[in-house]
Each structure stands twice: as C-alpha cells, then as structure tokens.
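Session log. Operator J.P. requested a structure for one protein chain; no other inputs attached. Running the standard single-chain path with token output.
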Amino acid sequence: MNYIVLVKQVPDIRNIPDEAWDWEKGTLKRAYLTNVLNELDKQALAFAIRMREQQPGQVVALTMGPPFAEEVLRYAMSAGADTGVLVTDRKMGGADTAATAYPLGQAIRKIEKEIFNGDKNYIIFAGMQSVDGDTAQVPAQVAEELGIAQIAYATSFSFDKGELRITRITRRGNQIVTPSRYPCLITAVNWTEPLNASFNRTRWTNSQKIYSWSAADIQAIESRIGSAGSRTTVFRIFSPKDISQKQCAVFAEDELGKLVAAMKEAYTQKSTQGEKVKEEAVYQFPEGKTGSYHGEVWVYVEQEDGEINSASLELLGKATDLARQLKEKVGAVLTGSDVSKSAKELIHYGADKVYLTEHPLLANFLPVTYTKAVSELVEKYRPQMILFSATPLGRELAPRIAYRANSGLTADCTSLDIMDFKRGNVELTAILKQTRPALGGNIMASIITQNSKIQMATTRPGVMKALKPETTRTGEIIEHTIQINEADMGVRIISVESQPPASELKDAVVIVSGGLGCKTKENYDRYIRTLAESMGKVLGCEVMIGASRLAVEAGFIDRSHQVGQTGQTVKPRLYVAVGISGAVQHLTGMQKSELILVINKNPNAPIFKVADFGVTGNLEEVVPKLVQALKAKEEAAVK
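Structure written below.
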C-alpha cells in the first residue's frame, strides 16, 4: 500500500498584522505572514505514517503553492514522509477550491504513474479542512476529480484479516467503513499527537530533492487553473467588528462579584426583551432587467431514518425569502430510502416542489451515490441556486456536486442576500451574495459565483430561521428514478453506532461547557457540574452541560453533550465556555448564543473574540471563586 498526503502551508492565524490585509482587493499579503503547516494536515500525515507501520509502502507529501511552500514538504519528510512533490506555477495563483482540486488531481495521476509505477493500490490523506480557507471542500473535490470514494471525519483505523477499517464520526455517532476499491481518499480530524521531526530525519531531509512540477508538467488545462479556472471570487473582505455589536468585558479574579452582577443584569435584559425581528432589505429588479441566473431556488434536505434535520428546515425558510425576491419557486431535494412520507412536511415548511429520489442503497449516506442522485436532478431541472447545510454531511456532499456541475460553492455562510454586481466590464443582476467568516474568524468575506451555471452555498446551522409550518400548504412531488448498484458505492459500511442526543442542547436556555482544559474527567465533573448548578440557582432556570469535541473524545462526558460542527448547534440565552480555546469547529456550534462568558487561561484564545464577558486564569482557581460569588448573589437575593 502506498500513501499520498495533501499538505498545505497556511498563515499563522494567531498573529496576523494589520498591514497584511488588502481591504480593497479582498486579499492577504502573504509576505507579511508567518507560514506554518496546517494542523489537521499534520493529523493526516500521522494517519498515513501509522498506517504504513502495518501496511508498508511509500508516503508522498504533496502540496501546491509558491516556491517557499517547499518548507512544509521538508517538515513532512522530517516527520516521516519518504518524498515531497511541490506543484508550483504563477498561472495557478488566485485559485479557489475547484481550481485547486483540479491540479492536485492531475499531480496525483502523475505520482501514480511515475512514482508508484502505475500501482493503484494507494490512499490519499488530507486534513478535513485548512485554517485559512476553512471550507473542507478541496479533499472532496479532489476525490470527485479522480472519481473515487472519500471517507471523511476519520478518527482511527484497524486491519481485520488484511481489510482496512476506518472509524469515522457521523452526526449521530460513529460508523466503521471499509473502502470497496483503491485508490480512495480519507480526511482526518484530531485523533492523535502530531509526529515530531527528529534530528536525524531533518538532516536526511535537507539532502533530499523535492519534485517541483509546473502546470505543464502535470498537463493541466490552463482554463481550469488559477483565477481563470475559479468558480467563485471574493469581492470584499472586512473585519467582523464591522458587523459585531460585541465587546468582551474582561474581569480579574478579584472582580467576580462584579462579573456575576453584570451577567445577571444582561441575562435579565435578554429575558425581557424577547426575540428581535431583524428587518432585511428586499431586493428589487432594476427596471427593464432580468436576473443573470434563471430557475428555481433549491435546498438539499438532510434526513436520517426519515427524520428531517432542523438545519434543512431553517434553509427552507431562507430559500423562501430568496425565491420571493427572485419571483421563483422553492424546490426541496429529498434523497434516501423510504423517505417519501417526509415530502409533505417539506411543503408545509415552504417548499413548492419536492424532488424525491428513493432507492434501497440510499438508506445510508455515502458521498458517491448521493452525488450521483442529486447531480442527475441538477442536470435535468437546472435550478439557479442550491443551498446546503454546513453539517458534516453537507460538507462532504456539496463540494462534489458543485465540482461535477462545474459550479462555484461558498462554504459556511452566515448571510445570503440578493444583489446586483458591477466591476469593470462585469455586470451581474440578481445574484447571490454569500458572506462567510474566514481565517479562523479574523475576517469576513463577501463572495459571488463566477463562470458557473448554478450558485451554491453551505450555511451554518442555527443562522437561518425556519418558517412556521402551514399544514394547509400544497405542492408538487416529483419522483426521480436512479440506477445504482453496490459497485457504485465505493465504500462498504461495516457497522453503525448511533447515539441519539440524550440532551437536546439546542433547546437549552443556559449551557455550561467544558473543554480539554479541564484536563481530567474528575475535574470536568467537579468544576462544570458545580458551576452549572450554581448558575441555575442564580438565574432561576435549568442549566444544561456541554463539551467540546476534544473533551468528549477524552472521555469527560458522552457525545450527546458535544457542541460544535460534529455535535449540536446551540443558541442559548447564555453560554459559558470553560477551558475551551475556540477552534472554528466549536465556534460554529455556539457563537450565535445571546450572551457568552469565557473562562480561559490564554488571553489570546480565539473564543474571547465572540465573548461578552471573560475571565483570564486557571479554571481550577477561577471556577471555585465564581461559584462562591454566585452563592453570595443567591444568598443576597434571599435576604
């Protein structure tokens, strides 16, 4: 077995100087940045090297970038890779994910032919996403370019009588799967300690030659690389502060009484204010003009065992708003086995049409077969827009569908609007403005689709709002027949471990969450549960406990309490984060909380950027003092 690891040189998002931003062009000046190897790519490298210990073969590190990106290849080799390949060419500058996936796919074909001598028995590894783009699109689109299966959110592996078995995270638990054929692509999440470079390996690496391939070397078609091959373009970047009303009030350890008073006052105000209805601008077509895109507005509907994911209902609400402005119909795409009973529910929530595809082999989600099912509908009915939820499933599926349709895709949007666009000779009418955070939340980017027939976006769960169901609504159900067999699946599911959420955190009013900073399960129970109990007494409500993914994987609490991208998305009135640094995956699931209190020993932890209140210090010292301050507040209220 051979291995290819996709690695990326990314800016150190913990330290981006102001002069690095080109606000007018919407770009970063990379020369001002410190560059490092993407953290999740280190996990992918460790995955490959650990697997090589059981199934010997070559490990090739592959990256695309400017000449100085060679640094990450030498790091990868010093940590265990056998060789490195750098794809570098000025023509590739300005590439989006599609224009990145294509040349990487071409390079992989060349590696297979020239380094592996035509042997197809290999696995491609990648980190689930990179910290700069944070889209999770490139690995899936590389898999689509190569026409191979992907296994996402991998956490461990084993071999059973020579058969590779991968354990992966799903929305409701875990799956164990095995590739049906090779090559295949596996994306890794945090699962082990990254490998360290040894002195001897580093000396050896410095004496080795790195392969350097140009666009011509990999036989890349120039219209598919760089800005010319990109399907999206950033037309504006701006600071999150431009749209955020939050400013974190930091309290010292001897000011926790003041913190409790300020928090209680803010919480009470939120309780009496009720939910504010935001008035959004309604788009009007310019006189005498029609839209640059035509067709319905679609939502891909996620379901599990026939139960519709609430994030899809939220998207239907937004799609209804967009379609009304565009004077178009709303379509809902429903795929699975025996799911027709859910079609009427989708109509009640705003769909005018439900495009239904059913097949026994669609009972469980697999990217290859689901891509085929949805892509056939796209090709036949030609919507102008498709929206997906930025859930683990949506992040696997949407990139492949967009790539197959030669269309752009913007990930993790927090805002979708209709706008007209004019810059230079480019003039577009009634297009989708897609706004998303990037670089770990350091900036916001507004993006439009270009060179595409369809506009596509994924949106963060919890950002949009579902409509109230109207049981009297009627609509059309359009059935589609798909021809698939087991050979099409690419992956075989060995077992499924479902863990339905025992705690519905999404409905909680107050949540106290603990992270890996708690260090042990005993500390988690001692500090998080005690703090939650004290919070409940002072605020007069039930307080639920949550956790980061790393805390769950460390065994502090079961997965039903996990908040974040692969857990639950929550919007409580108050969210308390203890010992949680604020990785993007966690922020995705909680940053829409009305009030956020952070306790962390690192004053530069990213989570402070979304907080209303903060305390810097060791939780072992801060939490007991905060509990005492809460008890004092409770006792004062009784008197």
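Operator note: The mean pLDDT is 90.
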